[in-house]
Automatic annotation (TrEMBL):
Organism lineage: Bacteria, Bacillati, Saganbacteria
Molecular function as annotated in GO: proton-transporting ATP synthase activity, rotational mechanism
Protein name stated in the entry: ATP synthase gamma chain
Main location: membrane
Keywords: ATP synthesis, CF(1), Hydrogen ion transport, Ion transport, Membrane, Transport
SUPFAM superfamilies: ATP synthase (F1-ATPase), gamma subunit (SSF52943)
Role played: Produces ATP from ADP in the presence of a proton gradient across the membrane. The gamma chain is believed to be important in regulating ATPase activity and the flow of protons through the CF(0) complex.
Gene3D superfamilies, A to Z: 3.40.1380.10, ATP synthase, gamma subunit, helix hairpin domain
Keyword Membrane: yes
Length: 283
């Protein structure tokens, strides 16, 4: 390869390295913010969980919904692949029904016995497009409690048993695909013990109903935030690997360019010396 081509490739890889490094910094900052929000939400839900534990009564629902939280973009390794595989395995025991029908706004209606899909993220929506009940992309870009609560209202109005599939954040290198039940009774609120002795006003039944509805909204928001943490962690690992590889390529190219330059200089010197010797011999 010529020296000109080597230098062109070096410029391209250095430019790519700059872009990837910038993305890495942005991802680190976003992940720090998401971690703080998750920690605040976790702390907020603890006392609510203590009040509701053992107070919410289960009920039987024929309809079932699986909320699949993926990402809108790639560059996050196996993040989407593993949660889609987990959801597919979960749905294998609940085959799709041919009686799904479109209703107003292009939303699918769900009849008894069916298992519909609510997709958060373009990857999940594309994968389960034949079973979609609701899909949402924008709320996942910058998730706020107001946006996620509005989405939860759409899911809640379906009056179905709700499961959520998401990548639980364990560490920067590990995101575990997980499926939890959120409605009618979240698994963490099921308790064989007597409910904690709290004074509930105006009435225990009224307060429990309102508090449980709010808990579902906040818990759903927390699951979305947890998935965001997993997505950013996976993206950070991919970007780190890409930046490290680009640095290695830059070092290799610099060495190759220097070797090629040295070879060219040595060849030119040899030609000059040879020409000088030839001229001296003619004299």
């Amino acid at each position: 390869m010529s020296l000109l081509k080597f230098r062109g490739r070096l410029r391209s890889i250095r430019s790519l390295n700059s872009i990837l490094s910038a993305l890495q910094v942005v991802t680190v900052v976003r992940m720090k913010r998401i971690r703080e929000r998750f920690a605040v939400t976790e702390e907020y839900l603890k006392p609510v969980k203590d009040v509701l534990a053992g107070r919410v009564q289960p009920k039987k629902l024929d309809k079932k919904i699986l909320v699949v939280i993926s990402s809108n973009r790639g560059l996050c390794g196996g993040f989407n692949t593993q949660i889609l595989a987990k959801a597919k395995a979960f749905l294998s025991t609940h085959p799709p029904s041919p009686s799904l029908e479109k209703r107003g706004g292009g939303v699918l209606s769900v009849s008894g016995g069916e298992f519909g899909i609510v997709a958060l993220g373009k990857r999940a929506a594309n994968y389960f497009r034949d079973r979609l009940v609701v899909s949402e992309f924008e709320a996942l870009e910058r998730p706020t409690f107001a946006k996620i609560r509005a989405l939860w209202q759409k899911v809640f109005e379906l009056n179905a048993e709700v499961y959520v599939a998401y990548n639980a954040y364990k560490s920067t290198a590990v995101q575990a695909p997980t499926i939890v039940r959120l409605f009618p009774v979240p698994e963490e609120l099921i308790s064989d013990k007597e409910p904690a002795d709290y004074i509930l006003e105006p009435s225990a039944a009224k307060l429990t109903e309102e508090l449980f509805r709010h808990y579902l909204e906040a818990r759903f928001y927390q699951l979305v935030i947890a998935s965001q943490m997993g997505e950013l962690a996976a993206r950070l690992m991919v970007l780190k690997g890409a930046v490290d590889n680009s640095k290695d390529l830059i070092n290799d190219l610099v060495i190759s360019i220097n070797k090629l330059r040295q070879t060219n200089i040595t060849r030119d010197l040899a030609e000059i010396i040879g020409s000088a010797e030839a001229l001296r011999g003619k004299r």
